[in-house]
Amino acid sequence: MRAPSFRDRALVVRTHDFGEADRVVVLLTRGNGLVRCVAKGVRRTRSRFGSRLQPFVELDVQLYPGRNLHSITGADTVAYHGAGLIEDYTRYTCACAVLESAERLAVAESGDDPWLFDASAATLGRLRTAPDPTVELDSFLLRAMGHAGWAPSLFDCAQCGRPGPHHAFHPAAGGAVCGTCRPPGAATPDEAVLRLMWWLTHGSWAAVDEARASSERSGDGMFTDFAGQAHQLVRAHLQWHLEHRVRSLDLLDQG
């Protein structure tokens, strides 16, 4: 007996054409994790919901389980996050990085944990107006890594537990490390960089905004420099643990 159809909230992660009129859609759902589906006939001009099945659209979908692919039998738009994203290269690539990273992280997630969906949808919404979209992206990635169980240590030494702050960082070592535990090739970030990463991990946006404003008042450009260093550390830590490059992050850094 086949399983009954069900409804769920979903974000379109990616799509590709299938056959003459169908489309394969990868969804990050709130209650069922990552779901691969086929939307039959949506490339025909008379499709009822084909235009809704695109990245940055939050949907309420009706799904019918299949052996290899679920079937999408209905899709209603809950929110469209594309406005404000697709017109701006940095915001667009940050949003793509959220979806691509969420897809990679969802592979190890249980289907009944809504955290990754909720965090992804909320971040897409904030990216539309965030003063620094890359900082917003890094906050999402740090929190998502923490939820997955491999957030970087940012104060105590990741190897021996010696209290920090420390001035070395290496993804394979677990993040910040003391001088004794420091492996070859470790980065040497300023203490303020790791502090910024800690703020982003814990959602301390008042501290982030004050640091940005202070740097703007003085005109020293230090916040931009520290944020750039933090981004490279977040990227390195994410890709080391995923064991896979996130192509959207490569495009972001090329922009």
UniProtKB/TrEMBL annotation:
It holds the Pfam family RecO_C. Transmembrane segments: none annotated. The keyword Nucleus does not apply. One of its GO terms (biological process) is double-strand break repair. GO terms for cellular component: bacterial nucleoid. The keyword DNA repair applies. Keywords: DNA damage, DNA recombination, DNA repair. Residues 5-79 form the DNA replication/recombination mediator RecO N-terminal domain. It comes from the Bacteria. InterPro entries: ARFGAP/RecO, DNA_rep/recomb_RecO_N, NA-bd_OB-fold, RecO, RecO_C. Belongs to the RecO family. Involved in DNA repair and RecF pathway recombination. This is DNA repair protein RecO. It comes from Corynebacterium meridianum. The gene is recO.
